[in-house]
Description:
Blueprint: E1 3-5, H1 6-16, E2 21-24, H2 31-44, E3 47-50, H3 54-68, E4 72-76, H4 80-94, E5 99-105, H5 123-127, E6 134-137, H6 143-155, E7 162-167, H7 168-172, E8 174-176, H8 200-212, E9 216-220, H9 222-226, H10 230-240, H11 267-275, E10 278-282, E11 305-310, E12 324-327, H12 330-344, H13 354-366, H14 369-372, H15 381-391, E13 397-401, H16 404-412, E14 421-422, H17 433-443, E15 449-454, H18 455-459, H19 464-471, E16 476-481, H20 486-495, H21 510-516, E17 520-524, H22 530-539, E18 544-549, H23 561-568
Amino acid sequence: MNAIIGGELLVRCLIQEGVRYVFGIPGGQLCPILDSIRRFGPDAGLTFIMTRHEEAAAHMADAYARVTGRPGVCIGTVGPGAANLVPGVYPAWADSIPLVVLTAQNQTWKSYPERGSMQSLAQTDLFAAITKWQARVTRWERIPELVQRAFRVALSGRPRPVHLDLHVDVLTATGNEESLTYRPLPPEQYRPDRGPVAQADLIEQAARMLVEAERPLIHPGGGVLRAAAWEEVRALAEYLSAPVTTSQGARGVLPEDHPLCLIPASYGALGAQAMADAVLLVGGRLGDVDFWGQPPYWGEPEGQRLIQIDIEAENIALNRPVDLALVGDAKATLRALLEAVQRLTPPIPERPEIPQYRAAQQSWLAQFAAHAASGAVPIHPLRLIRDVRAFFPREAITVVDGGNTNVWAHYLNRVYAPRTFLWAADSGHLGTGLPYAIGARLARPDLPVYAICGDGAFALNMQELETAARLGLAFVVVVANDRQWGMIKGAQMAAYDARYIGVDFSDVRYDQVARAMGCWGERVEDPRQITPALERAVASGKPAVLDVLVDPWANLTPPDLENLDAVWMEGCELPW
Length: 576
């Protein structure tokens, strides 16, 4: 008989899933799992990545999933370790990223309800709000069954994090592998590898609506990236000659220099959205940064027909009524929709309004040109963004993290490929930048990775520089250092007559922090030194931090800040 402990059985299940990395911090109750990774992981390609905070571990797993499309795995020990995972799991929940969250738990005989044990915590309750499924593993023989269910649920329907709470006496329990009803299986033996297609008659109806429209438009959301449906979007858009306006979180579905791609919230995109007579919304919900799908940024519902494709029926018509609802996988349904369109019409040549949309977009971009070319000291944020994006190749993975820094990056940091743009879009969570860069670099060691972070956001997880140096990962973090919480200070300046509270920092030398942790670090104060500093950073072969002093007053007022405030603070007008 082949007797194995629960920790080894769990690791065998992860190996069958093709898991490459488990991110986390060691804890006493986790040792049966970690020792099994140490013994069996090297031959199977499974590695434990020790981080310096559990939040960052979850962010790294999140980034790995965003880049690869495969579930990320993170782990935390009982009590504080599990609690520390929460702020990292939340952005994955908000953006529909598949994570498998593993937590150790005290013995079964003193948990649920707890009996006064140190570090006791009802961890399934804690994660219930930010995972789509949770389970306690209370028996050794149920480990394969529940691990398989966790991966199946994480990837089925709308992908999202799931949680397994593993009692330590189960992880140390011994059993005979031959006695298992459920055994560790490869994924193809227990879960589907493709999603469902919407009903055929509805697909035919959608095809007719798009073909008969004079000004159709396609609006992909993050679900297109999760379903790997970008080729289907491109093919359908080119066949219909329909403009594509991605959501903010779906950038990269189409290269942003593609003739049909209009940059989110640009004049061209807003004009196309308002003028379209038929909109195909795929894998998105028309949230606040899509202006809820409402006029004047979109057409009036009476004159603009809306077709929505989503894997989750609950997302249909969430913020705007639809004329046709197709519940199904984005990739499979778009492929069937394209075939239906092709049966109805030959390819449609460029529509007359497309050049108008592109001209409007160029007018929008032109307003940034002067600041982007500025030689002023301190450095204007747009000059920093322009030079950083020009330095890295098209295929590079770009991470953005921060408040106003994200807004400036949106204007000039173009995205050219799917799954190369990482941003905690729906949560706006700060502190993701450095951990996302680490996770992305592990996921795609063949691609350059750079992150653009505000100094406040960067400092939230900058301890992970030691993790990056220890792992020998080479990437560049550009810190737009304005020594303040810029977005909040800008809001206080506008709404409270410049009465500031809690928004200013001392001058931290992030370049010196980086060097102290074994990384490359350099401070940049002159815009002429941005590109040479990037060259030195890449040449170092280390994780690198460029501490760039940007103009703190210019940074307070990105052109669209008032529009964002209007969206986020709707209904909260002050009395003065």
